[in-house]
Amino acid sequence: MKTVIEATAPDRGWLKTYYYLRFAVSAAWVALAFTAAKSMPPLAAVMLVAYPAWDAAANYLDASRSGGLVKNKSQMLNFLVSVVTAVAVAVTLPHGMHAVLQIFGVWAILSGLFQLLTGVRRWKSYGAQWAMILSGAQSGLAGAHMLSKAAGAAPVGITDIAPYAAFGAFYFLISAVSLTVSGARRRSKAAAA
């Protein structure tokens, strides 16, 4: 019989698929940022708005699979912060990349905190959330670094945000692989019993 937590939590298969999807989208974004987008400002502008918009959509999708935004407060807050960030980036782009980098820095800190809280909440149901917790904490540090660069005089661009996205992709991949391995172990133990 399933526990209450297991009955209301999204299945492990969904979470694993979700983490692989987040990895793939982030990895593609990073690849474009370091190649085409750094020499094509219109593409970079679209990508800078799309990244937090995708994060909002992904948080909404994930929360909807586990009872909705109301039951998942940290994801609801992450969703809201990401929507506000996408709009703020779109409005701020004409004012230059230093202002955009400031917005990304604040977003990285807040979304990292909410991701960390989501990982802690899910630990009991799924285990294998250490990478999401670490990613959330590191996101805060990345945000502080972006704010520091945004306050400087050196030119900044999409490639100053891409490492943040690359670390996010890495942690989503680690989380997906961790769930894959823990699932295989669980199935192996069940088969042996």
Structure characterization notes:
The protein has seven helices and no strands. 80% of the residues lie in helices and 0% in strands. It is mainly α and 193 residues long. The model is unreliable at 1-9 (pLDDT under 50). It starts with a helix and ends with a helix. It has helices at residues 4-8, 12-34, 41-64, 73-92, 97-126, 130-151, 162-192. It has one domain (10-184).
**Contiguous runs where pLDDT drops below 50 for at least 5 residues:** 1-9
Please tally the β strands and state the result.
Answer: 0
Strand content: under 5%
Shape: elongated
What's the number of structural domains? Answer: 1
Number of helices: 7
Distance between the termini: 17 Å
Structural class: mainly alpha
Q: Percent of residues in helical segments?
A: over 70%
Mean pLDDT: 89
Task: Output the helix-strand order.
Answer: HHHHHHH
Largest sheet: none
- Rg over CA atoms, rounded to whole Å, is 18 Å
